[in-house]
Every structure is written in structure tokens, then in C-alpha cells.
Design a protein that fits this description.
α14 packs antiparallel against α15 (about 375-390) and α15 (about 375-390) packs antiparallel against α16 (about 400-425). By secondary structure, this protein is an alpha/beta fold. The longest helix is centred in the first third of the chain and has 33 residues, at about 1-35. The protein has four domains: about 10-35; about 40-145 and about 205-290, 2-enoyl-CoA Hydratase, Chain A, domain 1 (Alpha-Beta Complex), CATH 3.90.226; about 300-425; about 435-500, Nucleic acid-binding proteins (OB fold (Dihydrolipoamide Acetyltransferase, E2P)), CATH 2.40.50.140. The protein has 17 helices and 16 strands.
Length: about 500
Amino acid sequence: MFAKDERRSRLSACAVLAFAAIIAAFLGVSAAQNAPAPRTAVVLDIEGPVTPANAQYLAREIGKASSAGKELIVIEIDTPGGLVDSMKTIIKAILASQTPVVTYVSPQGARSASAGLYIMYAAHVSAMAPNTNTGAATPVELGGAPSDENPFEKERPGTQKPSDPEPASDGGAPANAGETQDAAPGAADNAEQAAPLGNADALRAKIMNDSVAYIRSLAEERGRNADWAEKAVRQAASVTSREALELGVIDLIADDLDDLLVRIDGLAVNTVAGEKVVATKNIAIERIAPTFIEKILGFIADPNVAVILMSLATTGIIIEMWNPGSIFPGAVGALCLVLGLYAFQVLPFNWLGAVLMGVGAILILVEMFTPTFGLSGLAGLVVFASGMYLIFPEGFRVSTGLILTVVGAFGAFLALVFIAVVGSRSHGPMIGAEAIRRREGVVDDWDGKDGWVIIEGERWRARADKPLQKGDKVKVVEIDGLVLVVKQAKAPGLLGAIQPKEA
């Protein structure tokens, strides 16, 4: 009886414990589901030119972070600029983000020029590290260098500068002085504005005005210095981080990422979802890198890499043309040409530099087929190097060390070709009777003054003025029809090994 009661009590206790465990597990799951997600700052980066590859990367990750409700997005910038379409893709993603976006020009020594400045102006918070710079946002047409002339500053036919009055008549006051004073103050300006622009100037004026309006709209949206932004577009103005802070171009200067997060803690910003206060205390940092393909495309878009690819393409194609059928150099050259053209598609280049590189390659090719004792090749190297230097505008300039390396490699290649050509011209005839004369061989069979000899693997009938033995070394001195006239070759003396041999 007591055993049964004890068993029942144990079963009851187990049931109670199991029920309690189930309740605890249920409460734990509910608490986990209701617990707030950990606050995270997503860190992205723009390093190098702004291209379709990194625009796709940034737009995708900004959209993901915004949809996931991340606390903050930080874009670290170090760029000389890039394509307008790619820049606008990034800016559209920033403006549409419900998560605050902070741009940070970093590390020290970095820059945010041209397209980078527009991206900074679009961000909710803009910061720079010490010893960095920004600006120089004048638009550059793809495939050409910017003109040094401003279409708005050109004198129009029939107009006159206010500082240059018409000459006085009879030594009196300037002619039409009274008329000038009575005229409306804006008459000259209206005449200037009414004067038509040429096609090239009109196109550049449209691009310039569109760029100015775009960056001013961003400045007004974020409360930054719109006048200086216009100056950066029209006059390519550039400033340091301290000057940018004083001018109201940026919001703050931070030594590093940790310092940036501390400084923006508690800052209120306006997003498309309304005002949001940034909370960065004890925030987790998540760095997101581009995909492998995006990294490769970004690497190819580097000006130095683009020039290397075009140099390899030129070399491969020249070798294939010089030695048809080798296949591998031609295939590598074609692949490098395709990749190089992609890089040139996303970089602002100068047609003059491209033409010079092409002319240099042609001169090098001429040297390969019709040797001019190095004159054409040397001229080609100089022209090719000049093209590499001029191919990209300032800010995208190819490294001088790389130019010297490429020219040195081409020079070494041409030197090898020159040595091979000289060597091919220095030996005697390769076929015919002249090719046999003065060559050496070995006696294969001999009887009296006649016999057979082996000359470079061929068996010839031969005669000599004295008997020879099988295995004797002989030298051809004359050819009589199909019979070789030979003599016994003298054994080389002590200095025979270093004596020059006759061809």
C-alpha cells in the first residue's frame, strides 16, 4: 500500500516538473521572440573610382540594411571620382534609405573628389578624417579631357567688358557715357545671356548647369554649404578636412571609426521615414565586402591596371602577328584587350593619349617586321609612354613607376628581337653549296684518296689529297659537283676553344 502511494507521488512530481519545464521553455521562446534585435552598424567602402561594380554593391547593401532596420550605415570613402550614372545610383539608394547613412573620408591621406563630393552631400551625416581633402567636382566628359575654358566667361561678339569703356572722342568723356549710365543695370548681363553658345560650349554649359543644380539640391536637403558646392563644380575648388568643417561642407572630423561612432551618438537626422536619433553606444560593427566578381571588376577599373591590360594586349597581339600560329599570345592579348576596353569604358580618358598609345604600338610593330636598327622601336616606346601619361586626367593619372616599368619591359623585348635579327643575319647560307663549304664532318668509309664522309647527318661522296682513316675529322674546302673536296681538320690548340670560328 505504501509502495503504491510512493509510486504515485513520484509520478505526480515528475508530471509537475515536466509541465514546469514546458512552461519555462514556452516563456523563453516568447521572450526571445519579443527581445529587440541587436543594434548594428553596417560598414561599406568606396575605394578607387566610382564604377558600376561598386555602385551595385553599395546600392544593394544600403537597401538590405534599410530593410533589415539596421541602426546605422557607414560608407568609408577614398575615391578620385567616377561615372555620373554610378554616382547617382549610390545617391538614390542613400536618399531612399530609412537607416541613417554616414559618409566618412578615411583613412588619413584619403580623398573624396568629384563624384565622392556629391555622395558626401547626399549623406545624412558627412565626416572626414584629419589630413584628407574633398572637392574638385567639375564634370569631365567620358572619352575626353575637360576644357580649360569656361563657356560662361567667353566674350561674345558685340559685347564689351564694363571695365573697358569706349575711347573718348576729341579728348572728352567716353562716348555714350550718358547712355551707359541711363541704361538698365542688367542690360549688359541680359545681352551676355542672350548671346548664343556654340554647340560644344552649349553642351558643356548644359552639363555644368545640371551638375550645379544637382549638388545644390543635395546641399539644401542636408543643410550644407551650397555656394561652395557650386564653386567646387564650376571652378574645381578643393579643401582640406578642417576647411571643409569651417565652410559647413561636412558635419564633423573624426580620427577613426570608433571616434566617429562616439561623436555621432545621440545625433538626430531626418530620413525618409522621419526623424531618427542615432544611438551608437555599444553598437556592433558589421563590415560587408563586395562580391568576388565586384572585386574583380573594381580592380580592373583602376587606371594603372587598365594601362597594364592594354600593354599586355598590345604585346600579345604583336607577338601573334610576328609569329602567326603561336595562339597563346594572341588569346591572352585578346582577353586583355576586352578587359582593358571595359576599364576604359568606366574611366574618363583622353583621346589624345589613346591615339598616342596606338601610334606607339604601330611603330613597335614596324620595328618587329622591318628592323630599322632600333629607331622605329625607340620612337614607338617614347610615343607609347607619352600616351600612357596623358591617357587619364589629373586624379586618375597613371603611376610614373608603372610607365617606366612598361617601357623597360617593351625595351627589353625589342632588344631580344634586335639580337635575334642580327644573329640571323650574321651566319652564312643555310642551304646550297655555300652552306656545305667550310663545315666539318667525320670520315665514314675511306679507300685511298676517295671515300664517304658524314657532314651534319648527311652522307657525302668525298675525296682528299691524302689517305684518311675512318673516324678522322675533316673539313670541306671545295665542292666538285656532288663530290666534296675535304682535308683533315687540325686538332684545336690550347687557344682553339676561344678562337672565332668561320661561318
